[in-house]
């Protein structure tokens, strides 16, 4: 058991550190825009960042699909497939990036129209969008490389790259804004520079760590091979559809809260930070599930596979207990650190008990996502998320007139529980 725990932690801990640094990119942009002397700049950066967060989240299948297929190939000791999977993923990433860049004007116009901000904010957000859109090749290739690293049981390199990106972003954004007197364009350029710096470092580290011993295994003629491409797109199609379900639930949660007024929207936004903090850690163990379960599954080692699943749930349960206790005791105090608005803090007390239940309801969903990605059972993951989405809308729409925001939180927690429950059923029905 100690060896299994050691392998899990060796993958999970660097992933957790990398996850924690991710919000810093947006936080730096917000901090710089907040000192430009006009609230319009804050809104423009917030809108622009949100658009790209959604776009890149939708194409997150490039990371997850690559991770599962690479870990399985590693388990089979099929280095040809290990190398070719990365090459195929990067080809697809570049094709998607080209699609985004070519259609940037209609995509940007539709996105800004959906957000519905003021004309002044939209004008500045467009400046942000038209610069950052050129970062699509870097970001999507980084997704492919990150997924491949995880599949290779190596999360230290993604951690280093993520930290480096944040440092570059801070330096570049501050330089463009304060040294060259730029506004939103300077913040966008800082983000763009950080994205390509991350890609450059990632490629350099790949070359020095893996280099020729992997490159010589790439079967160039198989990159576009029909059977392999169909499997690649089948796996990633299910992840893509599952992500759309997640986006639908999260977007509706936000909009339904906003429809109940500014105070409720603020309360929900703050309480969701408790979910975010929990997800940073649990995603690390999900990544460990992708890497280790995928490798054991590819090798046909069912004993180690089952042991790994049990230990992942063991770690998840321990962390869930810890998070639940902390949230129950200090959740309100944490909210006071985020805002000094007395009305918002007072209103949050009514809904805080729902947020305390987040770790308990979300445990199985996070762990199973990692296991299912590792085994490329993406159809089951999509089915579970789609079923949970229907439950979410059913619960909220049937109770909203009486329970209002309480119905929204009950629906969200039920969504998390349903995902985990359905995936548990699928796992046991498939013979573990």
TrEMBL record:
One of its GO terms (cellular component) is plasma membrane. CDD domains: MATE_DinF_like. It is found in: Membrane. InterPro entries: DinF-like (IPR044644), MATE_fam (IPR002528). It holds the Pfam family MatE. Its main location: membrane. The keyword Transmembrane helix applies. The chain crosses the membrane at residues 7-28, 40-62, 82-103, 128-150, 157-181, 187-207, 239-258, 270-292, 312-331, 351-368, 380-397, 409-428. Keywords: Membrane, Transmembrane, Transmembrane helix. The keyword Transmembrane helix applies. GO terms for molecular function: antiporter activity; xenobiotic transmembrane transporter activity. It comes from the Bacteria. It is a multi-pass membrane protein. NCBIfam families: matE. Belongs to the multi antimicrobial extrusion (MATE) (TC 2.A.66.1) family. This is MATE efflux family protein. It comes from Leyella stercorea DSM 18206. The lineage of its organism: Bacteria, Pseudomonadati, Bacteroidota, Bacteroidia, Bacteroidales.
